Amino acid sequence: MGSTACFIIVSRNDIPIYEAEVGSAIKKEEATHQHQFILHAALDIVQDLAWTTSAMFLKAVDRFNDLVVSVYVTAGHTRLMLLHDSRNEDGIRSFFQEVHELYIKILLNPLYLPGSRITSSHFDTKVRALARKYL
Amino acid sequence: MIGVGKIKQYSNVLDKPLSRGKQEFCLQVSLSAFAFLFSELVQYNQTQVDNIAELERRLEDAGYAVGARVLELLCHRDKGNRRETRLLGILSFVHSTVWKVLFGKVADSLEKGTEHEDEYMISEKELLVNRFISIPKDMGTFNCGAFVAGIVRGVLDGAGFPAVVTAHFVPMEGQQRPRTTILIKFAEEVLRREARFS
């Protein structure tokens, strides 16, 4: 019995640049596709919501059955989206803030093209470690 | 080499801290080093292009990359994770925060254009990047401030306010060197969104 959680980073141009299943539950193959579908469907709502507030953490924007989509929008309109079934808002907020810092460090690399996929394995390791810590 | 041993070595850039901490004064770049680098950037691009417009576009693109990163970094570090959603908000962000971090001072002035609703101007008596550059007469209206215009365009574009940004020389009465004005012309959608919100 674990928690389901699917985390993606979507760039300004609506292209996913990073994906990770970070839940501790056993993963089923169809579930992965469904998670990604739900997250992408929530993008429309995020787009409208992002312009109504100057905060970065948008909390829960959409739900599907018992899964909740939480979103964190950065200054450059890169969206960090998490699909989860837990209700731990503070943990999710801290998770987003830490991943945001990691994302900025990746972005500061002059050889990284903003909007392209994040391929750093170190980044992947750190995100998964943060997910285990906060989620 | 006193003090070198005190700087902690990180194995990966993702582990280095993002905020400046106590090392604020160690992390400034010397003006001459920057001016040298910038002059090399301009000269390199000059060899790659045939005309002035292309050269300006290349400098702008170089600035655009800087702007996109500056926006994210400063919103996180100096603005405590608040995004800008209004036009005046993002303009004053560029005019004060971005200018202060990049050039050490806020921009001289921020004005709204009188002829068109969608034009704004940031003026500077002398742009830092232009301080050691003189333009030969045969290059006409070329301005190396195109690099700074690119930075501004990168910041605005990243924040969701697409605009056309250009740098112009404006001759001033009684002054030898002309003033530089960064002209910002916002896209239609920005004005429509602003109208919806106000």
TrEMBL record, chain A:
<dbReference type="GO" id="GO:0005737">
    <property type="term" value="C:cytoplasm"/>
</dbReference>
<dbReference type="GO" id="GO:0006888">
    <property type="term" value="P:endoplasmic reticulum to Golgi vesicle-mediated transport"/>
</dbReference>
<dbReference type="Pfam" id="PF04628">
    <property type="entry name" value="Sedlin_N"/>
</dbReference>
<dbReference type="InterPro" id="IPR011012">
    <property type="entry name" value="Longin-like_dom_sf"/>
</dbReference>
<dbReference type="InterPro" id="IPR006722">
    <property type="entry name" value="Sedlin"/>
</dbReference>
<dbReference type="GO" id="GO:0030008">
    <property type="term" value="C:TRAPP complex"/>
</dbReference>
<protein>
    <submittedName>
        <fullName>Trafficking protein particle complex subunit 2-like</fullName>
    </submittedName>
</protein>
<dbReference type="GO" id="GO:0005634">
    <property type="term" value="C:nucleus"/>
</dbReference>
TrEMBL record, chain B:
<keyword id="KW-0813">Transport</keyword>
<keyword id="KW-0256">Endoplasmic reticulum</keyword>
<dbReference type="GO" id="GO:0005783">
    <property type="term" value="C:endoplasmic reticulum"/>
</dbReference>
<comment type="subunit">
    <text>Part of the multisubunit TRAPP (transport protein particle) complex.</text>
</comment>
<dbReference type="GO" id="GO:0048193">
    <property type="term" value="P:Golgi vesicle transport"/>
</dbReference>
<dbReference type="InterPro" id="IPR016696">
    <property type="entry name" value="TRAPP-I_su5"/>
</dbReference>
<dbReference type="InterPro" id="IPR024096">
    <property type="entry name" value="NO_sig/Golgi_transp_ligand-bd"/>
</dbReference>
<dbReference type="GO" id="GO:0005794">
    <property type="term" value="C:Golgi apparatus"/>
</dbReference>
<keyword id="KW-0931">ER-Golgi transport</keyword>
<protein>
    <recommendedName>
        <fullName>Trafficking protein particle complex subunit</fullName>
    </recommendedName>
</protein>
<dbReference type="InterPro" id="IPR007194">
    <property type="entry name" value="TRAPP_component"/>
</dbReference>
<dbReference type="GO" id="GO:0030008">
    <property type="term" value="C:TRAPP complex"/>
</dbReference>
<comment type="similarity">
    <text>Belongs to the TRAPP small subunits family. BET3 subfamily.</text>
</comment>
<dbReference type="Pfam" id="PF04051">
    <property type="entry name" value="TRAPP"/>
</dbReference>
<keyword id="KW-0333">Golgi apparatus</keyword>
